Each structure stands twice: as C-alpha cells, then as structure tokens.
Amino acid sequence: MSSGLLTTTMTRAVNMPAGGEVVIRAVGVNYAYGAGETRTQVLFDNHLEISRGEVVIMTGPSGSGKSTLLTLIGALRKMQEGYLEVLHQNLSKAGEGEQVELRKDVGFIFQQHNLFTSLSALENVRMATALKPASPAEMDRRCIEMLTRLGLGERIHHHPAELSGGQKQRVAIARALVNEPKMVLADEPTASLDAQSSQIVLDLLRSLADGPTKTTVLLVTHDQRVIDKADRIVNMIAGRIVTNSLTKVAVRIVRALAATSWLEGLSEATLSRLANYMTVENRAAGETIVAQGQEGDRFYVVGSGVADAYKDGQYDEEKCYGESFGMITSYFKMPVPETVTARTDLELYVLHKDDFLHALAADQSFEARIRSLLAGASPALQEPAATTP
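Structure tokens predicted for ATP-binding cassette domain-containing protein (389 residues):
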C-alpha cells in the first residue's frame, strides 16, 4: 500500500453513527426483570450510538427486548447495568428528578393511546403543552396546527369515543409531537393506521428529523413502509442487538455491488449481507490505492469518482462506479495485478480479508461465486489458500 493510506478516512459502513452529534450512547446495557430464582434477563451487553436527527427503526421478534430498551432510553425505567447516555444526560446514575427532566424533551407514542376520555382531541393534545407553556392562544394554535397536519382538522372537538382507532392514534401522535421534542420514542406508531394516514405520520416524523429541531426518532415497528424514511435499522434477537445498519449507506453499497460484474446474478439478500461486512474509505485525487506486485488484503468497489489502472507501468483502463480492483493475495495466491490511482476524489466500498473470510463462511452463494471465479482462472488459482486470517 502507498503512503496515501495516511490520509484515508475509514468508517465501518453499517455500524457507525450517521454523523454529527451523538444523542444516544449505550455501552454494555443489561437488564433483568424479577430477582432471585424468578430473575429473567432480557437485555444482554447492548452497544448502540445514534446521532441527532436520525430516524431509526428497531425490529425483531416479540420478546426480543426492543420495548425494554426503548423505555430505558426514555428514562421510563431505571438502568441496572452498563452505561446509557441520552441527550447528554447520564442515565446510568440519574435520579428520579433527572429522569423527569429528560422526559420533558421526549415525545412518547405507545400502542395504547392513553387518551383522557372526558377531553376532546384538542384538549388531550393541549395537556402536553403544559411542559412548554406559552400564552393560551399560542398553545391552542400549536395544537390545532399539529392535529390538522395529521388530518384531524375536522375532529379537534371530538372525544375519543367519537373517534376511530386510527384517529385516536393520531391524536396520541399529535400530543407527542406538539412540543417539537428533541427525541421521539414510538412503539408501533403506525400499527392501527391505514396507508394514507401512515404516510402522513411518517412524512411528519421525517420532517421533524430534517427540520431545524433535528429531532431524533426511534421507532419500534414491523411496518415495512417505514424503511424508506429511516436512516438506520437496528435488529434485536433474544435481548441482543445483532445488526445495526445505516440504510442509506447500505443501499449505496448494495447498488454498487449489483453493478459489479463478478457479482452479477447474486440475490439482493446476498448483496445486503455482503454490504454488512464492508467499510467505506474516502481517497483524495492523486492517491495510489494499490500497487502492482504487492501483497494485498482487501477488495475495493468504486462507489463514486474515477480511478486509473496501470499494468507494467502502462495505462490499462479507468475504474468507475461498480467496478472493482484489489486482491486478497493470501486467498487467491497471486499478487495485486495492477496499480490503481485515484483520478478524482473517491468513495470506495472495501472488503477486508478477515471480513471476506467471514462472508464466505456465512453465505454459500457468495462462496460459490468465488469458487467459480477460481475455477475459471489459471490452474495455479483453482485451489484457494487456507481460509484462516
């Protein structure tokens, strides 16, 4: 590798915050219900970072710990083990008063509407404005505006008994959002909504995340309609975060992989799994990325920009979007076959040796594709090296 590595910025593609201010940081979070013989642990060594303005989906089977983690983040439950920081407040040692103060900056949306049956939709939402008081006229204006944005402008004076399940859910959502909170925590917020109402709610949440408040939104949901609005998907199984994917980065990587000739025909699921192993490197124009004849420990796929490839000192071809270069020499038993230099600034998607071996072990279709490549190569390449790092 060239000295250009000194200026490389490398980020785990699907595992890091989207950038900017981190507002949720969990380190080694455990939680259990009960004590003694009845103690049941439901969260195990969870680590997570979420940035301000991200829309995050939490998925996983029932009983996987999603709602428990959500209530810990919302200071509705006291921490037991590990470190949890939310909106720059250390909840690991927070007392009741500090938890109450944090909750004032959080909008909660639960499956149970928890509306006051004796109050109208407007009055139910108006209750929340007491956390951020203003003149009565201003508080009424905020409530009416939020209810109207959610399609309830003609229902503001109706009581819960006069509203459908979806309308009651939207009143609860309006109550959670009326103060433009710094964070929204929602448990299946669109479960009782039709497609049109769901789209309205999701557009509103996305606008709060993108707007001046840069509200952070964390949704526990199985609703596939939410994915297009999300920045990150966190999947939990049996109390553990098992995957944590930045959706926009993952989509960019999958699209680039799909355009890569030697991966043509692999399923989207296989490409998505492969993307989970990849990192992002940004290289400046003029840098040499790989050098012919050297040992290599990674593959590169061009995500944006243009590179130039040289063989034996002579210009060979350009490398554009979806094209690959580099070599894992210990596996393919050959040195790097070409020198590649960045003609422009590059975004590269990179598969390192250890992650390459893990990807082979985890996905038979990817392994079959690699063996097919080896079978079509020279006899010296047909038997790969031992697959130990």
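Residues 74 and 267 are 38 Å apart (CA to CA).
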